[in-house]
Design brief:
Helix content is 67%, strand content 6%. The protein is mostly helical. The chain crosses the membrane at residues 12-30, 36-62.
């Protein structure tokens, strides 16, 4: 039987695992009463995810090209 998916590069697999772990940890804090500058810790971590995800992926893409 032939595989129906393209192979995923190692850097993409690592990025996916790291981001999934980050999101799981972040969602454990969804009910946290902690606030920083009027925004819950969950909001800060989700905002940080918008910067971490592309930077992490760029790091592994550039590392893979070398």
């Amino acid at each position: 039987m032939e595989k129906s998916f393209f192979p995923m590069p190692k850097g993409d697999k690592i990025t996916l695992v790291i981001l999934l772990l980050y999101v799981i940890i972040t969602f454990f804090l969804i009910k946290s009463p902690v606030k920083i500058a009027g925004l819950s810790i969950f909001g800060w971590l989700m905002a940080l995810l918008m910067f971490i995800a592309p930077l992490l992926h760029l790091y592994f893409v550039l590392k893979e090209e070398k």
